[in-house]
Amino acid sequence: MKRILAVGVGVVGCSLMLVGCSDNNSSSKGTSSATGSAPSSATVASGGKTSVKVEGNDLQGLDLNSVTCVKQGGTINIASGAVGGQQGLGVVMTDGQPPKVQSLGMVVDGNALAVSQAGGMGTGSADVKVDGNTYTITGEAAGADMKNPMAGMISKKFEITVTCK
Q1: What is the pLDDT of residues 87-133, one digit of tens each?
Q2: With b meaning 16 or more CB within 10 Å and e meaning fewer, what string describes 109-141?
Q3: Tens digit of pLDDT for each residue in 54-74?
Q4: Which residues fall within 8 angstroms of residue 5, CB to CB, at 6 or more apart?
Q5: In terms of C-beta density within 10 A (0-12 exposed, 13-18 middle, 19 or more buried), how is residue 61 classed?
């Protein structure tokens, strides 16, 4: 149980780091900085059609305008910022046909919930549907109830829709 919680917290922490490293331009492709760094092949998208629902309700406290989508190196990374640091989202999935979620972390009401296949143990589940540039990820994320850790694992159904160019 402690291992699963640690994986969930780690996934959320790494995913939220993507927010700090992302570009808030509506899209950029192959740009280089004034420092002379090599052009990147990453495509960054923000804005667009984004929604995050947990148990059928909008995830309150999540800044939907901060959700970014980065396609690079065969993966798609989706991350968000939070209002007041309370809620957050991070998803890593393959850029295949169909895409597959490698890891997903979200903070819901102060609880770190995850979907992961780390260490041979599966936590939660996720499916991806693609319609053009719009990805809809549905499933169930699991984690510990931080208000009552002795109660055991909790799980919440989610639906994430994001446009990624």
Answers
A1: 789 999 999 888 999 999 998 888 889 999 776 778 899 999 999 99
A2: bebbbbbbebeeeebbebebeeeeeebebebeb
A3: 999 998 888 888 899 999 999
A4: 112, 143, 144
A5: middle
